[in-house]
Amino acid sequence: MATTAKTVSEFVDSVKAKNPAQPEFIQAVDEVVESIWPVLEKRPEYRKASIIDRIVEPERVIMFRVPWVDDSGDVHVNRGFRIEMNSAIGPYKGGLRFHPSVNLGILKFLAFEQVVKNSLTTLPMGGGKGGSDFDPKGKSDNEVMKFCQSFMTELFRHIGPNTDVPAGDIGVGGREIGYLFGQYRRIRNEFTGVLTGKGLNWGGSLIRPEATGYGAVYFAAEMLGTRNETLEGKKCLVSGSGNVTQYAAEKLLDLGAMPVTFSDSSGWILDESGIDRDKLAFVMELKNLKRGRIKEYADKFPGAVYTPVDSSLDYNPLWDVKADCAFPSATQNEINAKDAANLIKNGVYVVSEGANMPTVPEGVGIFLDKKILYGPGKAANAGGVATSGLEMSQNSLRLSWTREEVDQRLQGIMKAIHKAAFETAEEFGMPGNYVAGANIAGFIKIADSMLDQGVI
Ligand code: NDP
User: Considering the domain boundaries, does residue 437 fall inside one?
Assistant: First the structure.
């Protein structure tokens, strides 16, 4: 059966009917399908082969029980997932998220975004995503290890270096990847590049921890380059305080910009004097080792102001600060329509998304309308998975590239992604629209690969 929907909304309604209670997934599908609809008009063979009907349907969804015992001997049960979305251009690739908000719809949105993003990276990677509703916050190292071991005791049978190669995401950093890899190796009796984000001593790549944040900043620099500008001297709002945030801030400092905000789920800090290298080192230790809260930044540095989250507000005051650039790097839908309007009002004209889908569709509409330099997550944050791809290459070759070599490749890939999104937007008559450019460029490669491989 060919794609029969006549309009985007007719198609999205059919996806909604089939996937009830998955608003984030529908949001992600809606955005991509809206962008690629003009391509379907030009390429009837995609319609005939039901390409879009097939790409919104995961190739495989795995859901499983994850039982584990806490330090007091109490038994807990979490739910584990792996969405193997599309492997037309390579093995499934995408992170694992451990956060209490994790559910099927959120992981399907992330997996779907990942498919298009991975295609854009120029590397041969399909798309997937997984995780659990487990909350690592407040758990001991031992409890996190027990959980990871139980999680991998089921996941191991579904993944492999040529099948599906998970990585980190929210709540899954170097510590968790270590425990997951250890258990995989034990069960399989095999040392392979089955996960990325590994430690340097056991197959990891230099620059992988830095890659997503660095990449989002490189992407911003590329966008500014189209207006003959640089990041030098720019005041930047950065949200979150985890992996992506920390390295976005580091690269901003390298390029002469000034980050002034960070946040976590409890509140945010504003440091008008700038978050410099020493202050960033404090945040890295606070978040990565002590696993503390961002509030402690303001206790340590008296010039900074901490504001706790106020759930009665219909906007996020972090986005209501005068600045030039914004790097949303915490989580999905963290910029609503009012936040987007506030950003514009405050002079922000560069938004480069470190997080996945951090801006709601109305907010994206505002950015596009105002013609600011807006880099959507699937282009701007693709540096992380691209460097995971480089880690896979190094594992296959059984050698390690230098820091400079990996960073150079990362910069080259971010340039290529920017070029593809920029030029595709122009080709389809939407100059400067990186959303359409990224979606169309990513989609065409997958669609053509699916056509080549027949109806599967
Ligand atoms: P981390 O777990 O290292 O950090 C996440 C940060 O965001 C923490 O400060 C966390 O605060 C905050 N946060 C998470 N959820 C919420 C929420 N619901 N409300 C408010 N704050 C929240 O994750 P990463 O830095 O790895 O990931 C951040 C974003 O970047 C995610 O959208 C992820 O999908 C995306 N991304 C990550 C990549 C990677 O390589 N790591 C690659 C591409 C995209 P708290 O500690 O209080 O929860």
Answer: no
Please tell me the distance between residue 217's alpha carbon and the centre of ligand 1 in angstroms: 16
List, for residues 261-311, the tens digit of each pLDDT value. Answer: 999 999 999 999 999 999 999 999 999 999 999 999 999 999 999 999 999
28 with 68, same domain?
no
Residue 426 lies in a domain: no
Choice among 93, 108, 129, 235 that is catalytic: 129
Q: Say if residue 99 is in the same domain as residue 36.
A: no
215 part of a folded domain:
yes
Statement to judge: residues 74 and 172 lie in one domain: yes
How many whole angstroms from 429 Cα to the centroid of ligand 1?
A: 34
Nearest in space to 449 (alpha carbons), one of 59, 119, 13: 119
> Tokens 């309009």, residue?
7
The finding on whether 203 has its CB within 6 A of some atom of ligand 1 is no
| Distance (Å, whole) CA 263 – CA 309 | 10
